[in-house]
């Protein structure tokens, strides 16, 4: 047959297919009918009558050729499992290529690797689709079961190229004989009924069976010729897809989680019933809408922000907890979103899951709340553990609960607690004095100032909440409109301010100590914050109990500290004298509120002969016992100083009294002291110390103006006096030694305790150097110098007491006349002394003192002549009193005797005792001085002096 151009007959001849209109095998040699509707109907009728016999066409023929054709020369049928390699080229699917059963060779240009041929390129698109996963291969069979058309998908699925299979019986690809019979029956049923659906196995090019799902359909061409279309799908891939779809349906529809799918415009394309029920809106009303169109605005804004972030970045968001929409009731939800893309990476939208985590959130929140509360308790305990001031503890308590527990807090205390007084023994009533000493708020405004004013005095009615809690000690919780007006008293402006701030929940908790209510802790919440619950109340009670113990300790400490300070201030000098030739300034600074009162003290003691003793000391320890010991020690020093003993002798006697001055029988006295005596007439300073901070002396410059009381300090050059250290009082084993210095007029002497110059991390020399640098500066007065010294105290110093004593040392009173003589130790010295005294007093217009002064001088000089063997000194000083001093080199002091009626001597000292206002003796150098004073009331000193 000659093929006409363009009618496809050439292709049929090349492929071995019969030409259109030719006789077909099994047709009895009759030609096929023309392409008419009648022909197609006749073909269907013949098929329905069973002609021709389809089973005949499914019988296997040698060589696999068409019916009536001869087998290929040299070819022998082989089972598909024993196929031999027959073509060159790369093997299909990684295995050696095999020849078709019967040894037929593929035509030139055909590929043996099962891949697409040039005539049938792959239909796979770049983007890919579900058909890439579940491939559908189309095969056209004639009524005898021979392959008419083998699609590229079939080539890709089974590896057989169409050039090899077209014209061969399809049952040659079925390895199981039983399966062959079932395949023929399926073909008959398709020809009879028009379709068939089932599973079968077909051998691929490697000889391995491939299970496929086959859908057979009857086709009739335009000439009425019947064909069978077989749509083949790999059963494994199909079952996987079906399983995935079933899982998807189960997850989507039966999942307890809410699931949503949104497109790139963030509009719902699908939601499951669980999410629809959670949102309170049918599923069909979600589709096509955004989250903002289905949920309340406040909830939708948070979720939409998360959705946009996931869609833009591709980063999934997992387990974000948000509050449930108001329309769904109170609770919490966990949302998770991820971006969806197809196989080509094109963004399809996002998917999300929503889970109700209200119970989990509340359980976690409860555990976290318990942890936070425990942490707050520990933190509060550590913050107030070392505080001993009620006001500071109250402020710490208020600050601890805001904002972690409440928005506003006020701590109200009894006035007795704040001032360290005894607790009341009777119940509280409206006359109880309360002070608000601790306040804290999340914001500051006039309303807050009205509600929470530090230091405000709180008043209340007895039937108010405050009154009930103070009387009963039972906390109360107020919420909503639960009577805020009855909090204290009707018309309380604090209640109106709270209403303005939106306060909706309150706790009024008692602060208790020793079973007594000592105050109230009032905490409030406002705005959108949830109200207080029973757990909050229990925690606040626990916190208040701890605070109550600390507040009571602070009260007890304040009471003890007040008593100790009162005792200490009582024992310190109430009035400091200003002796002649000495201008004194002093400061005493108690330790900080966290330290007990110490044993620091100072003293200024006038001595005979216008001399002055300057003393500063420090008893080791703190508290009432240290203050009491300091008082006894100061008294002992004053008594010994009144005996006009040398400084080293005074300290030695005090040390000998250490056991009696100690705080208790089991505690030894340990104290430091510095004792200095200044004699303005001789401009001498005698100093000794017992383990104390050495004094500092500042000497004015050569051009400084003469010192005058109340005048400015010119400054000068300072130095630390180099003294024998001595042992502290009560230690012993080290002798006390004095050093005598000549002091220029106007020098400044500074005595202090260690609290002024010692610090935690610096040497003592640093503090002394700082003190010297301050005192070397000029000041308007000695009082201003005192303030300057205290203003430069080391901030890191130990919180100890400070005693500071500054003394400007001068010549004494310039207007007081003084006269002195040195007489030989001879009998004539007595008469000469009387003449000198008489003449001097006459020159001073003090004749009324002459007789008494002559008599007493005569007695003392007589004693000196009798017992001394060196010159005798006589000195007169006229001021408010007449001071007479008789010195000799004999160190032993005179002893007063009580002479009998018949005794001729022994009455000299008795006369001195009876006629003088005061008399005494003191050591001076290697000898002694005996002195007495006579009253000079009304006598005016002359303008000039000898």
TrEMBL record:
Q: Which CDD domains match?
A: HATPase_RsbW-like, PAS
What are the protein's UniProt keywords?
A: ATP-binding, Hydrolase, Kinase, Magnesium, Manganese, Metal-binding, Nucleotide-binding, Phosphoprotein, Protein phosphatase, Transferase
- UniProt lists compositionally biased (Basic and acidic residues) regions at 1-14, 50-59
User: Residues annotated as region Disordered?
Assistant: 1-126
**Which Gene3D superfamilies does the entry mention?**
3.30.450.40, Histidine kinase-like ATPase, C-terminal domain (3.30.565.10), PAS domain (3.30.450.20), PPM-type phosphatase domain (3.60.40.10)
What GO molecular function terms would the record report? ATP binding; kinase activity; metal ion binding; protein serine/threonine phosphatase activity
SMART domains xrefs: GAF (SM00065), PAS (SM00091), PP2C_SIG (SM00331)
Q: Which reaction does it catalyse?
A: O-phospho-L-seryl-[protein] + H2O = L-seryl-[protein] + phosphate
Q: What is its EC number?
A: 3.1.3.16
SUPFAM superfamilies, per this entry? GAF domain-like, PP2C-like, PYP-like sensor domain (PAS domain)
Task: Give me the segments passing through the membrane.
Answer: none
Domain PAS as annotated: residue spans: 123-194, 251-314
Q: What ranges does the record list as Low complexity composition bias? A: 30-42, 68-103
Does the keyword field hold Hydrolase? Answer: yes
Name the GO terms of the biological process aspect: regulation of DNA-templated transcription
Note the Pfam families from the entry: GAF, HATPase_c_2, PAS, PAS_4, SpoIIE
Q: What does this protein do?
A: Primarily acts as an independent SigF regulator that is sensitive to the osmosensory signal, mediating the cross talk of PknD with the SigF regulon. Possesses both phosphatase and kinase activities. The kinase domain functions as a classic anti-sigma factor-like kinase to phosphorylate the anti-anti-sigma factor domain at the canonical regulatory site, and the phosphatase domain antagonizes this activity.
What name appears for this protein in its UniProt entry?
A: protein-serine/threonine phosphatase
Q: Which species is this UniProt entry from?
A: Kitasatospora cineracea
């Amino acid at each position: 047959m000659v093929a006409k151009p363009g009618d496809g007959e050439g292709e049929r001849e090349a492929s071995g297919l019969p030409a259109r209109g030719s006789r077909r095998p099994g047709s009895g040699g009759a030609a096929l009918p023309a392409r008419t509707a009648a022909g197609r109907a006749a073909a269907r009728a013949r098929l329905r009558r069973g002609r021709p016999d389809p089973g005949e066409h499914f019988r296997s023929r040698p060589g696999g050729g068409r019916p009536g054709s001869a087998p290929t020369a040299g070819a022998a049928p082989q089972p598909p499992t024993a196929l031999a390699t027959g073509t060159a080229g790369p093997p299909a699917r990684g295995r050696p290529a095999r020849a078709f059963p019967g040894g037929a060779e593929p035509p030139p240009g055909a590929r043996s690797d099962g891949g697409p041929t040039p005539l049938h390129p792959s239909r796979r698109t770049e983007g890919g689709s579900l058909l890439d996963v579940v491939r559908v291969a189309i095969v056209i069979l004639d009524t005898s079961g021979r392959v008419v058309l083998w699609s590229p998908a079939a080539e890709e699925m089974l590896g057989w190229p169409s050039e090899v299979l077209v014209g061969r019986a399809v049952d040659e690809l079925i390895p199981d004989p039983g399966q062959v019979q079932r395949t023929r029956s399926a073909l008959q049923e398709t020809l009879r009924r028009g379709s068939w659906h089932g599973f079968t196995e077909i051998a691929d090019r490697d000889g391995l069976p491939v299970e496929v799902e086959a859908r057979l359909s009857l086709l009739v061409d335009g000439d009425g010729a019947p064909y069978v279309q077989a749509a083949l799908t790999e059963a494994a891939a199909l079952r996987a897809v079906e399983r995935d779809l079933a899982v998807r349906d189960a997850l989507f529809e039966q999942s307890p989680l809410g699931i949503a799918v949104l497109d790139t415009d963030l509009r719902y394309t699908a939601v499951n019933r669980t999410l629809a029920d959670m949102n309170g809106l049918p599923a069909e009303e979600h589709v096509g809408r955004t989250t903002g169109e289905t949920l309340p605005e406040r909830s939708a804004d948070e979720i939409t922000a998360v959705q946009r972030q996931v869609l833009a970045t591709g980063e999934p968001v997992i387990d974000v907890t948000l509050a449930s929409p108001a329309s769904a009731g109170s609770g919490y939800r966990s949302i998770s979103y991820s971006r969806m893309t197809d196989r080509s990476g094109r963004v399809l939208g996002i998917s999300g899951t929503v889970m109700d985590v209200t119970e989990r959130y509340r359980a976690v929140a409860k555990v976290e709340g318990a942890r936070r509360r425990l942490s707050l308790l520990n933190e509060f305990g550590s913050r107030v553990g070392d505080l001993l001031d009620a006001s500071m503890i109250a402020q710490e308590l208020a600050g601890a609960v805001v904002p972690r527990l409440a928005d506003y807090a006020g701590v109200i205390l009894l006035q007795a607690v704040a001032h360290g007084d005894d607790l009341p023994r009777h119940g509280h009533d409206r006359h109880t004095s309360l002070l608000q000493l601790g306040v804290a708020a999340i914001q500051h405004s006039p309303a807050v100032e009205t509600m929470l004013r530090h230091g405000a005095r709180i008043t209340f009615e007895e039937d108010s909440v405050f009154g009930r809690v103070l009387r009963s000690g039972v906390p109360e919780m107020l919420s909503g409109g639960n009577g805020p007006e009855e909090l204290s008293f009707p018309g309380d402006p604090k209640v109106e301010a709270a209403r303005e701030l939106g306060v909706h929940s309150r706790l009024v908790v008692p602060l208790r100590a020793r079973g007594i209510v000592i105050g109230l802790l009032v905490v409030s919440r406002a705005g959108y914050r949830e109200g207080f619950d029973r757990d909050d109340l229990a925690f606040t009670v626990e916190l208040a109990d701890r605070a109550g113990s600390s507040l009571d300790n602070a009260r007890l400490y304040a009471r003890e500290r007040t008593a100790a300070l009162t005792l200490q201030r009582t024992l310190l000098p109430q009035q400091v004298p200003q002796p002649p030739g000495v201008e004194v300034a002093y400061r005493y600074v108690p330790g900080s509120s966290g330290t007990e009162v110490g044993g620091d003290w100072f003293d200024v003691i006038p001595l005979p002969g216008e001399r002055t003793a300057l003393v500063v000391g420090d008893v080791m320890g703190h508290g009432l016992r240290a203050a009491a010991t300091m008082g006894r020690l100061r008294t002992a020093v004053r008594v010994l100083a009144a005996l006009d003993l040398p400084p080293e002798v005074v300290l030695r006697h005090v040390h000998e009294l250490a056991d009696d001055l100690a705080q208790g029988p089991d505690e030894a006295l340990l104290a430091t002291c510095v004792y200095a005596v200044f004699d303005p007439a001789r401009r001498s300073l005698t100093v000794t110390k017992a383990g104390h901070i050495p004094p500092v002396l500042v000497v004015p410059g050569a051009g400084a103006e003469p010192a005058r009381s109340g005048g400015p300090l010119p400054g000068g050059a300072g130095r630390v006096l180099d003294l024998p250290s001595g042992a502290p009082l009560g230690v012993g084993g080290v002798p006390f030694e004095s050093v005598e210095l000549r002091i220029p007029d106007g020098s400044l002497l500074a005595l202090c305790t260690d609290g002024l110059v010692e610090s935690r991390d610096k040497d003592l020399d640093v503090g002394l150097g700082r003190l010297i640098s301050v005192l070397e500066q000029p000041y308007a007065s000695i009082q201003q110098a005192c303030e300057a010294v205290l203003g430069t105290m080391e901030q890191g110093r130990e919180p100890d007491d400070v005693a500071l004593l500054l003394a400007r040392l001068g010549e004494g009173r310039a207007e007081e006349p003084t006269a002195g003589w040195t007489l030989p130790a001879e009998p004539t010295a007595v008469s000469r002394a009387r003449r000198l005294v008489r003449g001097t007093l006459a020159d001073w217009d003090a004749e009324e003192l002459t007789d008494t002064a002559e008599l007493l001088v005569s007695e003392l000089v007589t004693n000196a002549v009798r017992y001394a063997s060196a010159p005798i000194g006589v000195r007169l000083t006229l001021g408010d009193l007449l001071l007479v001093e008789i010195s000799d080199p004999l160190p032993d002091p005179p002893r007063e005797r009580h002479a009998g009626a018949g005794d001729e001597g022994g009455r000299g000292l008795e006369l001195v005792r009876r006629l003088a206002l005061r008399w005494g003796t003191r050591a001076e150098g290697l000898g002694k001085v005996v002195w007495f004073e006579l009253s000079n009331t009304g006598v005016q000193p002359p303008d000039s002096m000898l």
